[in-house]
Amino acid sequence: MEGMRLGILTSGGDAPGLNAVIRGAVLTGERTAGHSFVGFRNGWQGVVEDDTMPLSRHQVKGINKLGGTIIGTSRTNPYEHGGAERVKEVLAKNEVDALIVVGGEGSLAGAQELYKDGVPIIGVPKTIDNDLGGTDYTFGFDTAVGIATEAMDRLRTTGESHSRCMVAEVMGRHVGWIALHSGLAVGAHLILIPERKTSMDEITHYVKGAYDRGRAPLVVVAEGFQLASMDTVHSELGLDEAGRPRLGGIANLLAPLIDEATGIETRATTLGHIQRGGTPSAFDRVLATRFGMAAVHAAQASQWGHMVSVRGTDIVVVGLEEAVGSLKVVPTERYDEAALLFG
After folding, report:
1. How many Cα atoms within 13 Å fall on the side-chain side of residue 44?
2. N or C end of the chain: smaller count of CB under 10 Å?
3. Span of 35-39, 232-236, 252-256, 277-281 with lowest mean pLDDT
């Protein structure tokens, strides 16, 4: 299919590498087949409100190294603003043949529904949480792990100076990939993830074990972790635009419990949005660029209702249902492997 006009939008939470996807798509499309591109501002909000910006080689020059997204993002649900009919209307008005949707689980689930309702869509998987099925990795994850690792390296030095226990909270929503990878990288004495409920007795065992060996214990906890005694995730911040609990604060809950149970002075640090900001890592720039290029090739082949994906080192195309069918959680064997190093 020659000379298509493709729309691009970035939806949901931001992640380092979004701009590299945009650049990879635009440069590939212009050079290989004379495609033209339009950006929809602020995710699906830009589609339903017909808010666009041009995307040509000029607009995307040098943006692969920039964090965030030059076209903005939001958590707008198109089905709350006219649904597929409104989307088709705006695409027709702008003479857009198809959409490239860069998003996470919620965004791609919406994209799948729109595809079923007749909107030609190619998906690109994006989330720092690495929780999407159908792909080995999502861009943004490597950067988030690197930022968390550097921050916790710094926490260790201050913890060791004072012989304190440090509890570091990382993002990840309902999966523990960021906690697992950054915790292994930094040599944490305990990693707590949503996939495995843990008791205070077990936490106390590992913290005291490290302390008794003369170490300043470092505990890495994912924001979606639950103690064995908890029925739901810890959320103090209400609901987000999609009606999901805003996670965060579990480290502040755990620190005084650890302090009380062990007698070891304990401090909590929540890394928060630092993990998803700033310059993307080289790995994420390369992966995101390859995703953008592959998305254009998939559109050219009319592979609507599919998303680009990485399997091993190869970029492949899979059905959107593989991405949104279920969360990609940390397997038990991966956690058990890490647990050999605890304490």
Report:
1. 27
2. N
3. 232-236
The tally of domains found in the chain comes to 2
HSE-CB of 287 using CA atoms within 13 angstroms? 28
Longest distance between any two alpha carbons in the chain, whole Å: 69
| Residue that is written with structure tokens 């890394």 in the block | 271
Task: Tell me which residue range forms the domain holding 80.
Answer: 5-139+280-324
Binding-site residues sit at 13, 75-76, 104-107, 127-129, 164, 171-173, 223, 267, 273-276
Closest CA to 307 of 48, 21, 60: 21
pLDDT tens for 294-333 read 999 999 999 999 999 999 999 999 999 988 888 999 999 9
Nearest to 200 by CA among 120, 266, 142: 266
Note if 142 is an active site residue. no
Q: What is the CA angle 267-271-277, rounded to 5?
A: 165
Reduce the DSSP state of residue 162 to 3 states and report it.
Answer: helix
The token duo for 59 is 């607009």
Q: What is the pLDDT of residue 60?
A: 95
Q: Does residue 246 sit within a domain?
A: yes
Q: Judge if 176 and 267 occupy the same domain.
A: yes
- CATH number for the domain harbouring residue 73: 3.40.50.450
